[in-house]
Automatic annotation (TrEMBL):
Signal peptide: none annotated. GO terms for molecular function: enzyme regulator activity. The lineage of its organism: Bacteria, Pseudomonadati, Pseudomonadota, Betaproteobacteria, Burkholderiales. It comes from the Bacteria. Transmembrane segments: none annotated. InterPro entries: N-reg_PII, N-reg_PII-like_a/b, N-reg_PII/ATP_PRibTrfase_C. This is Transcriptional regulator. GO terms for biological process: regulation of nitrogen utilization. SUPFAM superfamilies: GlnB-like (SSF54913).
């Protein structure tokens, strides 16, 4: 079965950015995304989801390398200086490349 290389961009950030990230993903050419409510902790403390302003999300975007690079650069310059954001990119193989 043939597979096709794509990038998985994962963004973990404050829930307040959800609508802005969706808009940015679409503007930078992403065909779709998946968003989860998440909790966790790290270098700057714990986000426990105990009240609305403390919620976090994880957004996953499978896309071309070009889209992943452009979108991640936009997020780095626009949101990282002002919000808690973690991001990573991983190589993935997809079976239906037209979806991504």
């Amino acid at each position: 079965m043939p597979t096709h290389a794509r990038q998985l961009l994962v963004i973990i950030t404050e829930a307040a950015l959800e609508k802005n990230l969706i808009k940015a993903a679409r503007q930078h050419g992403a065909q779709g995304y998946t968003i989860y409510d998440v909790r966790g902790g790290g270098q700057h403390g714990t986000r426990e989801d105990s009240w609305e302003a403390d919620r976090s999300i994880e957004m996953k975007v499978i896309c071309t390398q070009e889209v992943a690079q452009q979108l991640s650069q936009y997020i780095l310059t626009t949101y990282c200086p002002h919000y808690s954001v973690s991001m990573f990119i991983a190589e993935v193989s997809v079976l239906r490349p037209e979806k991504y």
